[in-house]
Amino acid sequence: MNLKKEERTCLFIDGSSLYSTSRGLGFDVDYKKLLDFFTSKTHIIRAYYYAAILDTEDYSPLKPLTDWLSYNGYFLVTKPAREFTDSTGKRRVKGNMEIEIAVDMMEMAPHIDHAILFTGDSDFRRVVEAVQRQGTRVSVVSSMRSSPPLIGDDLRRQADNFMELATIANNFTRRQQADTQRPRVGNPSPIRHPADQMSEPDLDDDETDIL
């Protein structure tokens, strides 16, 4: 993984990307274990989590997660998502966090040694390059083992290091199938994405799954 204990490191977690990737690999993310894992390997300065939330809902299914994250070591960044109906009558949701992530990465770059970006979106290649020019090492967390692969070639080539989520996932995830068979006596439920138990809208490639 090429993580160094003495490096000042910042996590930038695109919530929808991590959810989609882990779901495709059959994992549920435990966000407490995720932060504990990286904290044990390197000097975490800040852990950002980005989520777009429908502002038309009185209660968002993301709220339990975002509330927990904000009180347990994560720096939460949210913005309203937009829901609409396309020409075919399908429900669509727009709400990507690319600008927010890019701005925070650029602002933090002078203060850290290593940026770890959880996304597979090749649109981030230019901001990764810009952060690298400031002397900051950039690792990208996504997966080549999903079908189709969820990491763009341009982004993977630009990053200093690519972390395969399937390889490190056992440190901070649990398998859904195993959980249904394992007794939970005395074990609190891990902090997971609430959408793991819910259906989601049909989305195009340029539209963000806000769950």
Automatic annotation (TrEMBL):
Residues 8-165 form the NYN domain. InterPro entries: LabA (IPR047140), NYN (IPR021139). Residues 175-211 are annotated as: Disordered. Signal peptide: none annotated. Transmembrane segments: none annotated. Residues 199-211 have a biased composition (Acidic residues). Coiled coil: none annotated. Pfam families: NYN (PF01936). GO terms for molecular function: RNA nuclease activity. It comes from the Bacteria. Gene3D superfamilies: 5'-nuclease (3.40.50.1010). This is LabA-like protein. It comes from Acetobacter cerevisiae.
